[in-house]
UniProtKB/TrEMBL annotation:
Protein name: DUF4864 domain-containing protein
Keywords attached to this entry: Signal
Signal peptide: 1-19
Amino acid sequence: MRRLIAFAFLLMFSSMSFSADVKTLPSYKAAKALTDRIMEQVSKDKMEKGINLMRPYIPISKAEFNAEVARVAVQQPAINARFGKSIGFDFISQQVLGDSMIQYTYLQKFEKHVMVWRFIFYKPYDGWILNTFDFNDQVKQLFFVR
């Protein structure tokens, strides 16, 4: 069951070219504000709405993004059945790599368990894009990072 509920939504874009319609965020603080808004929605059991907030900042096709959102929506009932009601979130950490990458880590709290959310932003030029995000229930990994 643990593997069934371990979710990963990894978007690696090394082989993809930028789409002209991808928006950038002006600062890492704006990226943090976006992830806070995403987590506010997700923690209110509005996962699809939260994930859709990411869409303008991810350089993948709309069709590919929508397919991933649909896959997550199908898994939502299993998450709720296993973990209980979503009861909020905690911001855990910010990790900066040079001038070009930053990761924000959150916990989504449920009545019976937690999920770890990670958002990695990349700054190729002057603005920040969402390079990768994932969420899963592998909480033990948080204690080995520090």
